[in-house]
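Q: I'm writing a short methods note and want an example of a predicted protein-small molecule complex. Could you take the sequence and the SMILES for zinc ion and return the bound structure as tokens? Please keep the output block clean; save any remarks for afterwards.
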Amino acid sequence: MKKISEIRKSFFGDKYVIFAPKRGLRPHKISEEDAKRKEQFKENCFFCPGPDEDKAVYKIDVGGKWLVKVVENKFPALSLTNKKAYGKQEIVIDTPNHGEDFCDLSPEHIRTVLDVYAARIKAINELENINYVQVFKNDGGKAGASIPHAHSQIIGLEYIPHHMMADTMAMDKYCCENGSCAYCDIIKKELKEKERIVFDDDNVVALCPWASSSPYALWVLPKAHKNKLEDLTPEERLSIAKALKIATSRLDTEEIPYNFFIHDSLPHNDHHFRLKIASRMNVWGGFEIGSGVIINPVFPEDAADFYKK
Ligand SMILES: [Zn+2]
Ligand SMILES: [Zn+2]
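A: Understood, no commentary inside the block.
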């Protein structure tokens, strides 16, 4: 385990992270709260199958019953009818079984969830005036999950968020300077150096990034340069599902709340697809909020060891 602080610059772009292992972790014990909330919501859960269940916008059935279902967000901040807050929000119900966590699903089931994400990203992108679609999961109370039945969310926006635009411009700058894709180069470099690799098969690699901005941050990347989840083969999606299962199981065992996000290339761009996991155990202090410089108590090399345990 690394013990001396170190400032690292991200592989591309100009983000800096201060790794300071001495600060120690400030874990949040959330499992008891989560368990209690799960029980409270079990009755009248409108994500559970039953007479009152929400109408499906889209679903994948197995044996005559839905396995993964998409519904409208009942309490949306954005809608297609509100010109002042235009957008589209949907919920992906990952499983019909209340109490089953995302990490409990089989890799094949997780692949089905990914298939549903791909179908809905495509459909929402085709809506009028939607220019950006984000799929994300909040797992654990501190990560923003409000309903304990396993689900993910999709938001379609009229505009491209600043964060995504900045990321895209940094990737373009890297490509201009080096003549290659930043993520393809990261994959090559990391596979050679090995110490930050968590999962590696013929199709994908999962790694803890060199200058990770959250403890246990993990990127899952297809080895082939592909732009979108929709473009990935069933085999590639299954490999992503396997990496996700390993990572989320480990985080759940240690009661670490997390988010993950799907980053397709922006439309008309040629950027590498990536799925990113961020833990939510590190509460940002005044320095992080004020300066944008992150202090991370867990080096990615130690995070990779954590996932491989
Ligand atoms: Zn439920
Ligand atoms: Zn690439």
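A: Remarks, as requested: The longest strand covers residues 65-72. The domain at 6-308 is CATH 3.30.428.10 (HIT family, subunit A).
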